[in-house]
Amino acid sequence: MSLEEVIISNEKYIRMGFFFGMIILIGLWEILAPKRVLTVSKTVRWVNNLGLVFFNIFILRVLFPVAAVGVATIATYNGWGLFNYFEVPFWLAVVATVIIMDFVIYIQHVMVHAIPVLWRLHRVHHADLDYDVTTGSRFHTLEIILSMLIKFATILLLGPPIVAVIIFEVILNATAMFNHGNISLPKTFDKYLRLFLVTPDMHRVHHSVEDDEANSNFGFSLPWWDRLFGTYRDQPRAGHEGMTIGIHKYRDVKQVSWLPGMLALPFIGKMSGYVINRRQWSESDNEN
After folding, report:
1. How far is the C-alpha of 78 from the C-alpha of 14, rounded, in Å?
2. Which residues, 6 or more positions from 135, have their beta carbon under 8 angstroms from its beta carbon?
3. In terms of Cα–Cα distance, which of 224, 134, 144, 142 is closest to 180?
4. DSSP characters for 150-174?
5. Fewest C-beta atoms under 10 Å: which of 23, 45, 66, 175?
6. Which of the residue ranges 67-81, 94-108, 142-156, 268-282 would you say has the lowest mean pLDDT?
């Protein structure tokens, strides 16, 4: 059995292993050397954030039994997608798939900030009052469904190798938990690492309560898209220890840290704009 066949046949175990492994690794790191002092009970946030994660997994299993790897299998079997129409070296197809799908995630991330109705879903992720490894998986169920549909469309268009989709899913999941960690890297190491990978200090800026900072550093895994499209910001104005995490209007713990409140959050408040990279706002704009 080839390495590719081993990866495909053990896909679920590989993904579960990385998921729980990263939670344990980053979670312990946060306990031993936290970057910021937490403002909300860690127990409350972990129970509810992870409760939302497992609720989303259940809903996805009900709605999409085959998931992304299943769609890649269907595309391969039927010869659908660019990589099935054109003969491309296997290694190049794998690398290109990971990079292209990461770019699609970047575009999707910008989109959910730019379109008001989608921002209402995505603000569940941003409304977390603290920033740690569980924030990386905290998304509203409707946004998770939307994300899965975009992923399906990308896979059907590309026709990627099955193993490439598995690698992408593992990388995306692992890096999301890493760069949402309440952890600190040496400044010099962070400076060079963020040339190739989104680091915690780079992505934490994106969770600032300040709108222009929240509308920067959209990358999840690869940092190149932010630099290429002008959405990169090096540091928060108040510093990582001094910055406020979350959204101006949503500061009530029950509303943003408990599962019922998180599920209801997209349906609260008036519809309003949320313009990418504004530099000046009125007080009313802070209510987005």
Report:
1. 26
2. 49, 125, 128, 180, 207
3. 134
4. HHHHHHHHH---HHHHHHHHHHHHH
5. 66
6. 268-282
Residue 269 DSSP SS3: coil
- Whether 98 contacts 83, CB under 8 Å: no
* Nearest-5° Cα angle at 270, 267 to 275: 105
**What are phi and psi for residue 250, nearest 5 degrees?**
-105, 90
Q: How far apart are CA 115 and CA 111, in angstroms?
A: 6
Rg over alpha carbons for the chain, rounded to the nearest Å, is: 19
Q: Which H/E stretch holds residue 228?
A: helix 224-228
Q: Taking residues 21-25, what's their average pLDDT?
A: 96
Q: Within a 13 Å sphere around the CA of 60, how many CA atoms are in the beta-carbon half?
A: 22
Residue 27 CA, chain-centre distance (Å), reads 17
The single-letter code of the amino acid at 177 is M
Residues 6+ apart with CB under 8 A from 260: none
**How far is 152 from 71, CA to CA, in rounded Å?**
7
Q: Closest by alpha carbon to 35, among 157, 199, 193?
A: 199
Q: pLDDT-based confidence at 40, cuts 50/70/90?
A: very high
Using CB atoms within 10 A of its CB, is residue 46 exposed (0-12), middle (13-18) or buried (19+)? middle
Cα separation values, 238 from 45, 208, 221, 235, 245, Å: 24, 10, 25, 9, 11
Question: How many Cα atoms are found within 13 Å in the side-chain-facing hemisphere of 140?
Answer: 24
Q: Which amino acid is at 19?
A: F
Nearest CA among 236, 227, 178 for reference residue 207: 236
Question: What distance in Å separates the CA atoms of residue 68 and residue 12, rounded to the nearest whole number?
Answer: 12
**CB-based contact 123:247 (threshold 8 Å):** yes
- Amino acid letter, 14: I
Q: Which two tokens stand for residue 149?
A: 């549909």
